[in-house]
Design goal:
The complex is a heterodimer of chains A (265) and B (165). Chain A is built from 11 helices and no strands. With 265 residues, chain A is an all-alpha fold. Chain A starts with a helix and ends with a helix. The chains are: A mainly alpha (265), B mainly beta (165). At the A-B interface, helix 1, helix 2, helix 5 and helix 6 of A face strand 1, strand 2, strand 3, strand 5 and strand 8 of B.
């Protein structure tokens, strides 16, 4: 009898374990018992461009800008510039512009010095320049992503955590500027949905606002905060499930103005 | 921890190439992770996932592996969620790995409404690695749910990597 009972209990155990083994078809995202992994990963521009290119070839060459990088003592600005320059590298890869990629490789090295990550970045920067010369775009793309990630990791280990968010923000901003500019000159409803990033912009804004005041002090960073709030209101689909051409133009203008301000401040 | 011997050459190969490239591990780390110091240069669990990813990164239409990744620690029967922005028309492949070859894993993707999205599961001879491919129908925020089945008793450190095409 006790054996039978044990078997029944064992069977029940297996069944109940079996139920708990499979993932639910739906989860309640507001359930307070859910555990979220803290850090989010910011998409790189190429991830977004890959989707847009599936709608037809885009003129990425038009988005390669030769902007002068003027360094000053403001490391917060340098961190944002670093992210921007890396995003320019991704745009140049998409445009297969060898000269631009080589120039960007040199800028990456120059910007790495005030951020105290020059040693770690040097190998990647050289690889970017060499592989671009060979037209090995897959490798250049890989090295750019490695450079970006190496810098973020090194800054974390150097206790420069506050600047990590600014590098990520700069990279996202540069990619969004290029995406919005391409969509502005060749608007399609399908393509514009790539700008539907309300939660991501919200996260970037919240990370930015959580930075200590000393890190985001001054006129430029006031503009960063205001632009992020503005973009948060623009970068979401409307009731018809689209982002209108008007909004795309606004996103393009807002991102372009901020990028220009970062370079020129 | 038991690791299949036949996978060791692949792990070592990847380890050497990563060392050569000077790559440092980079990741999102969950709060209760008690596994490693922030800057451990190599992560064996990540290497298990990477070795499983190799076939998808080759061929005519290869996935492009991102350098960013996540890691943490899970109790059997528990789950965690990773937030990620995905873009329509792209395909994404995720790989999850834990060290214990007897472990059973679930790796699923949910949309912003909390509904599981259609996916293609890729299986491996070992149950301590699992992979899934998703083709998001809309651009937006998604949730990758990682969970550890109760087939083992011990907590597991985990790593998730992903690629797009």
């Amino acid at each position: 009898m006790s054996r039978i009972l044990l078997s029944v209990v064992a069977c029940l155990g297996v069944t109940s374990a079996g139920i708990s083994q499979s993932a639910p078809n739906k989860i309640d995202l507001s359930d307070p018992s859910l555990v979220f992994v803290d850090e989010s990963v910011i998409p790189i521009p190429l991830e977004i461009f890959a989707s847009l290119d599936k709608l037809g070839n885009q003129d990425w060459g038009q988005q390669v800008n030769e902007r002068e990088v003027k360094l000053n003592m403001n490391r917060s600005r340098t961190a944002m510039l670093f992210g921007l320059v890396i995003s320019e590298g991704f745009i140049a890869v998409q445009a297969k512009d060898k000269d631009a990629v080589k120039r960007i490789g040199r800028e990456v090295l120059r910007l790495a010095q005030p951020l105290n990550v020059a040693n770690e970045v040097e190998g990647h920067a050289n690889a970017i320049m060499n592989t671009a010369g060979d037209g090995n775009w897959a490798q250049v793309r890989k090295e750019l992503d490695k450079t970006r990630q190496t810098v973020l990791d090194e800054m974390k280990s150097n206790r420069d955590d506050d600047l990590v968010d600014l590098v990520s923000l700069g990279g996202w901003l540069g990619g969004t500027e290029a995406l919005a500019a391409v969509l502005k000159s060749n608007y399609t409803v399908e393509g514009s949905d790539l700008l539907n990033q309300p939660e991501l912009v919200g996260k970037l804004k919240s990370d930015f606002n959580s930075l200590p005041r000393r890190v985001r002090n001054g006129k430029l960073f006031n503009q960063v905060g205001k632009t992020l709030s503005h973009l948060e209101s623009l970068m979401k689909i409307d009731g018809n499930g689209i982002i209108s051409e008007g909004k795309v133009i606004e996103i393009s203008v807002a991102t372009s103005n901020l990028v220009q301000a970062i370079y020129e401040s | 921890m038991r690791v299949k011997l036949f996978l060791l050459p692949a792990y070592l190969g990847i380890a050497c190439s990563l060392l050569f490239a000077g790559l440092h591990c980079s990741h999102g780390q969950d709060n209760d992770s008690d596994v490693e110091a922030e800057n451990e240069p190599l992560n064996d669990i990540k290497l298990i996932a990477q070795s499983a990813a190799i076939p998808s990164l080759k061929g005519e239409s290869p996935f492009v592996l991102r350098e960013s990744w996540w890691k943490g620690n899970l109790k059997p029967g528990n789950a965690k969620l990773i937030q990620i922005q995905l873009f329509r028309r792209n395909e994404y492949q995720f790989w999850m790995a834990v060290p214990d070859v007897d472990a059973g894993l679930n790796l699923n993707v949910y949309n912003s409404e909390g509904e599981m999205v259609e996916s293609e599961t890729v299986t491996f001879p070992e149950t301590n690695v699992v992979s899934t491919i998703v083709r998001p129908k809309a651009t937006g925020l998604y949730y990758v749910r990682v969970s550890l089945k109760t087939t083992i008793d011990k907590n597991q450190d985990w790593a998730v990597i992903y690629a797009y095409r």
